[in-house]
Design brief:
The chain has 252 residues and is α/β, with parallel strands linked by helices. 36% of the residues lie in helices and 18% in strands. The protein is globular.
Length: 252
């Protein structure tokens, strides 16, 4: 019998609430403030993205540059931590280090960590071990080889396959489902993260039959939250974690 990895939950809900880049509909994304607010409202997980600075510090930023969030063209990989710290990301927030995020969240909320760059995985794995958060982190990446690498370093770490939605434009459901499941098996993943545009009841069923959890990104609409519930989705990435928590409280 296939054993399915279960994402832990901080509350009893029919779906796991994953605060995408923290409580990002209300606070600056991927900042300690957004993560703290996600903790306070009772989200099950935060999701964030990890990159490395010019001086080899792991930091949390979705984009390669801070142009969108910090109104500057400074690139993460071409700037030192002190240079990046001088940039206001909104509400006086600075770019956080991975260590700071682990220290804030450890024992308080689960963490979905997305690996953004090639070659930074061993350093991420060391930080996970040093901060003793192996049981609180789920790793994911569009760069699937990095999932293999992090499992070589932290063998029991759950990992999720993420595939760009545009990869499946025009593809048949059977091809899409087969590719997701093939990649998950090939890279020893415990789950898959799919765009809402790729979601189907059949894909959810096939993932569960294969012992995989399935999370959907990024959903801020109650109409689609309802569809996710009906399909048996395990977790939802959302910018509006507060709204999703309130919605799920009404349907319990």
């Amino acid at each position: 019998m296939i054993k399915m990895y279960k994402q832990k939950r901080t509350a009893t809900r029919p779906m796991t609430v994953i605060a995408h880049r923290g409580y990002s509909s209300m606070y600056p994304e991927n900042t300690l403030l957004a993560f703290q607010k996600a903790i306070e409202i009772g989200a099950d997980y935060i999701e964030f993205d990890v990159r490395r600075t010019k001086d080899d510090v792991l930091v949390v930023s979705h984009d390669a540059s801070l142009e969108r969030c910090g109104k500057t063209n400074a690139r993460v990989d071409n700037s030192t931590l002190s240079e990046l710290r001088a940039i206001n990301l909104g509400s006086g927030q600075q770019i956080p280090t991975l260590e700071e995020v682990f220290r804030l969240c450890k024992g308080r909320i689960g963490m979905h960590l997305e690996i953004k760059g090639f070659g930074i995985t061993p350093q991420i794995a060391r930080m996970i071990r040093e901060q003793c958060v192996e049981s609180e982190v789920i790793a994911s990446s569009f760069k699937h080889v990095e999932l293999m690498r992090i499992k070589e370093e932290v063998s029991d770490l759950p990992c999720s396959i993420v595939v760009p939605a545009e990869s499946y434009e025009g593809a048949s459901p059977a091809v899409m489902e087969g590719t997701f499941l093939f990649k998950a098996m090939a890279f020893k993943a415990t789950g898959i993260h799919v765009s809402q545009s790729c979601l189907s009841e059949e894909l959810v069923k096939k993932a569960h039959d294969a012992g995989l959890y399935l999370n959907v990104w990024n959903v801020d609409s109650p109409i689609i939250w309802e569809a996710c519930l009906e399909m048996g989705v395990d977790g939802v990435f959302t910018n509006d974690a507060g709204g999703l928590i309130q919605y799920l409280g009404q349907v319990e």
